[in-house]
Structures are given as structure tokens and as C-alpha cells.
From TrEMBL:
Cellular location(s): Endosome
Source organism of this protein record: Saccharomycodes ludwigii
Region described as Disordered: spans on this chain: 179-233
Protein name per Swiss-Prot or TrEMBL: UEV domain-containing protein
Keywords: Coiled coil, Endosome, Protein transport, Transport
Keyword Protein transport among UniProt keywords: yes
Taxonomic lineage: Eukaryota, Fungi, Dikarya, Ascomycota, Saccharomycotina
Keyword Coiled coil: yes
Comp. bias regions, Polar residues: 192-209
């Protein structure tokens, strides 16, 4: 076990986000799962999956999935319940089941050390695929809390026990099982030969032990003939008394077969002719050439059909790919045209804005020059000459116009003041209402209007006189 944490930070962050909203004791579950992943990170991986119980109730749970056994042939899922590590009861134990999404149909769990006959596993239930190991069995008298006193080691101990139980097991199908059962049984271990064993392996003595004479009680097969116990056994070969049936001679094999015609055996070497093998129903008769031509023509026709079909399929796929590429090119051309037109409009706007800005700058410079000239001219003229009247007529007209404007402002001021006092009369005192009345307002307004009329009449008469004199 390593003390250094090897689980990536992304996995830890994901576990925190998953465990916190689901489990009753998230801190304990997080520590237990992280410790198990740190120890068995190359075997198990975490994920979330919907678990449906026998009552049809579904819930999202965290599970550890992976493959165990010989050649990693047994896929498993270790479900972690919601109330895991929440109390000391046994209802919160993890559930270990076989992953039927990966496991082949008609599977069997086989222990390799006990041969193909020991196909039933006492820890796996049949159709449900639930795995009951001793530490999770309800009939076990040993409590997990006593076997894993350290925090975060309960799930790790369960996984280690599971790996130990299935270390020599593998999952195979029934077809593989039938093929295994048809094979010859394995050879017995040395030193366990019986009296009926007549194999040459048992007759030949072991190289590591001294040579012993054969027992007289051994019953040899009749095919080997009578045996003489006085013969000496060779240390590396069977005894000379064993007779072997004659083996027919092997026919000479040609260097290269150019057609399907089989090679006939040599009659001089064998008394009985060997029956020729019929390849794909082709017999060595007089019609051999016609049947060959027919088969070759059929094969050529099939090859031509396959080639034409492949050619049509490839041409169709190529045309589809060309159409897709052309559509993509057209789409890019439309995007390019749109962006090009937008860029041109943007450049035109920049040019027009630049021209307008230049015009405004020129106008600004012109007005600046005029202002500079005016300032230069004003600086040369005395201020007294600017404010003095040129003649008596102009001076009198200025005073009359000023008086007319002052009277107009006075009338407007009286109007505004009277309206304000009338609107807020209820908030004013009775003295103010008695001093300012409608009659006094009208008298003042008429007086000012009469005076303004006389001033304007005088201005009019002065203008007429000035026009006549000029």
C-alpha cells in the first residue's frame, strides 16, 4: 500500500460533487472510496448509474466497475448504497453483481485449477448475478467493523477478498465449456499411476529417480504383446518388448500443386489404396474439366459482380463526398462574400468619415483664423471707443430700448408673482392676501403698460425723424 495519494484531482472533485447530494454520510463514503481507488486504481473505476431494485424503485448511485479473474474475464459492478457507513447495521453493505452488459450470454464461472468440471461457483447466484463473499454474507458471524478497524479500509478489504476468491476463475460461454469437456482429461501427476495405466509415460521411468524393474502385477494391453521382465529398460526410451503396429507409408508430396487434383499414393508402397479427398464436390472423373470450367466461370462472375458493386459503391460514396465538399466550399464562399462586402462598407464609412473630419478641421482652422484676426483688431481699438456712443441719437435710442425691455420684464414679473400667490393663497397669511389684491395688480399693470406704450411711441417717432433727416 502506498501512502501517497495517486487519484487525480479531477476525479476527487467529481467524487465530492457526486457523493455530497446523494449519501447520508458523504465524508465517510468519500474517504472509503478514495482509499479503495488509490489502492486498486488499475482495476476499478468510478461512475454514476441508475440502480433499480426488485421492487422497481430506481435511484442514482455511485458504483465502482472493472474486470477481475484470469485475463480480466469477469466484469463486475460494486454498488454503494445511499446509507453506506451511516450506521452499524448490515443493510448498508455494498452490492457486488456481474456486469451483464459486458458479460456474454450463457456464461459460466470456471476455476482453472479444478478443471472444466468445477463450473459452479458457490459465491455467484445464477440469473441475478449477485456475488456473496464471506465478509458480506448475512450468515457470517464476523463483522466487517471488527475486520477493518481503520477508517476508509472497509471497502478496500471487501475488494481484496473479492480479488482473492476469483483470482483463478474466468467467465466462459457454454460453447467454450462444451469444447473444453470434449478434450482429453489432463495427465495425472507423477507417482499416481494405477495398475491399468498402459501409457508410455508411465512405462518410461523418471529421470530424477533410479530405474526400477516393472511390477509383475501390471496388466499390459494386448496390442503391445507379451513383455519379458528380464529385458533392461533404456533410461530414455520405451522397452524393446513393445510392438508397434505398422504404419502405412506416406505418399510423396509434390513440390507445388497447380490445381485441385489430389495426389494419388504409390501402389508399390501400400497394399490398400487411400481414398481421394473430394474438394468442394469435385471428383476426378471424365467431366472434371467441364466442372472446373463451370466453377471457374461462376467464380469469375461472382468476382465481377462484387467488383462492379464495389465500384458503384465507391463511386456513389465519392460523389457524395464531392457534393459535401462542394456544399462546404459554397458555404465558405458565401461567408467570404458577406465578410468582404462588410469590410468594403466599413472602409467606405472610414473614408467618408475621414473626409468629413477634414472638412470640419478646415472650417475650424478658418474660424480660428477669423477669431485671431478679430482679436488682433480688438486689441488695437481702445475699450472706451467701443462703449461710447457715436452721436446723441444713438445714445437716446439705446436708453429708450433699455427702458422698454425693463418695463416688459416688470410686467412679466408682476404676472408671475400674482399667479404664484393665487395658487398658494391658502398657505399664505391673511395680511399678504389683503395687501396684494386683484385691483392693485390691475392698476400697477395698466400703469406700466401705459408707460411702455409711450416709450415705444417715442422710439417709433425717433426712427421716423432719423429716416427723414437722412
Amino acid at each position: 500500500m502506498t501512502d501517497q495519494l495517486q487519484v487525480p484531482y479531477q476525479v476527487l472533485d467529481w467524487l465530492v460533487k457526486v457523493i455530497h447530494p446523494i449519501y447520508e454520510s458523504p465524508k465517510s463514503v468519500f474517504n472509503d472510496v478514495v482509499y479503495a481507488l488509490n489502492q486498486y486504481q488499475y482495476i476499478l473505476r468510478p461512475k454514476t448509474k441508475v440502480y433499480t431494485d426488485v421492487n422497481g424503485v430506481s435511484q442514482l448511485l455511485l458504483c465502482l466497475y472493472g474486470k477481475i479473474g484470469v485475463d480480466n474475464s469477469i466484469p463486475i459492478i460494486l454498488w454503494i448504497p445511499v446509507n453506506y457507513l451511516s450506521n452499524n447495521g448490515r443493510d448498508n453493505d455494498p452490492w457486488i453483481v456481474l456486469d451483464f452488459d459486458i458479460l456474454p450470454e450463457n456464461y459460466e464461472i470456471v476455476n482453472e485449477h479444478h478443471g472444466a468440471e468445477a463450473i459452479s461457483n458457490k459465491y455467484v447466484k445464477g440469473e441475478s448475478g449477485i456475488i456473496n463473499i464471506p465478509s458480506l454474507s448475512h450468515n457470517s458471524s464476523v463483522d466487517i467493523a471488527t475486520t477493518s478497524p481503520l477508517p476508509g479500509t472497509r471497502l478496500c478489504n471487501i475488494i481484496s477478498e473479492l480479488l482473492y476468491i476469483f483470482k483463478d476463475s474466468r467467465a466462459i460461454t457454454n460453447d467454450m465449456l462444451s469444447s473444453i469437456s470434449k478434450k482429453t482429461p489432463p495427465l495425472p501427476i507423477k507417482g499416481t499411476a494405477t495398475s491399468n495405466d498402459t501409457s508410455t509415460r508411465n512405462i518410461m521411468p523418471s529421470l530424477n529417480k533410479p530405474t526400477l524393474p516393472p511390477k509383475q502385477s501390471l496388466d499390459h494391453d494386448k496390442s503391445y504383446g507379451p513383455t519379458t521382465h528380464t529385458d533392461d529398460f533404456n533410461e530414455y526410451s520405451p522397452p524393446a518388448a513393445v510392438k508397434v503396429a505398422p504404419v502405412p507409408a506416406i505418399p510423396q508430396r509434390p513440390d507445388k500443386l497447380t490445381n485441385f487434383q489430389s495426389v494419388k499414393p504409390n501402389k508399390e508402397e501400400t497394399q490398400q489404396p487411400i481414398q481421394e479427398i473430394d474438394y468442394v464436390g469435385i471428383n476426378t472423373t471424365d467431366n472434371d474439366s467441364s466442372e472446373k470450367e463451370h466453377l471457374l466461370n461462376t467464380l469469375q462472375r461472382i468476382i465481377n459482380n462484387l467488383g462492379s458493386n464495389d465500384k458503384i459503391r465507391q463511386e456513389t460514396a465519392l460523389n457524395d463526398k464531392i457534393a459535401q465538399v462542394n456544399s462546404v466550399i459554397k458555404g465558405f464562399e458565401k461567408v467570404y462574400d458577406f465578410q468582404n462586402s462588410t469590410l468594403k462598407k466599413f472602409n467606405e464609412n472610414i473614408r467618408s468619415s475621414n473626409i468629413e473630419l477634414k472638412q470640419k478641421m478646415n472650417l475650424f482652422h478658418e474660424r480660428q483664423k477669423i477669431l485671431q484676426q478679430t482679436c488682433a483688431r480688438v486689441s488695437q481699438t481702445p475699450v472706451k471707443d467701443l462703449i461710447e456712443e457715436n452721436d446723441e441719437h444713438d445714445s437716446k435710442m439705446i436708453h429708450l430700448v433699455a427702458k422698454d425691455r425693463a418695463l416688459e420684464d416688470a410686467i412679466y414679473m408682476l404676472f408671475k408673482l400674482f399667479n404664484a400667490l393665487c395658487e398658494d393663497g391658502q398657505h399664505q397669511s391673511e395680511d399678504i392676501n389683503d395687501n396684494i389684491s386683484l385691483e392693485s395688480y390691475l392698476k400697477k399693470t395698466r400703469k406700466l403698460a401705459r408707460e411702455q406704450f409711450m416709450v415705444r411711441y417715442e422710439i417709433y417717432s425717433q426712427n421716423i425723424n432719423n429716416t427723414d433727416n437722412s
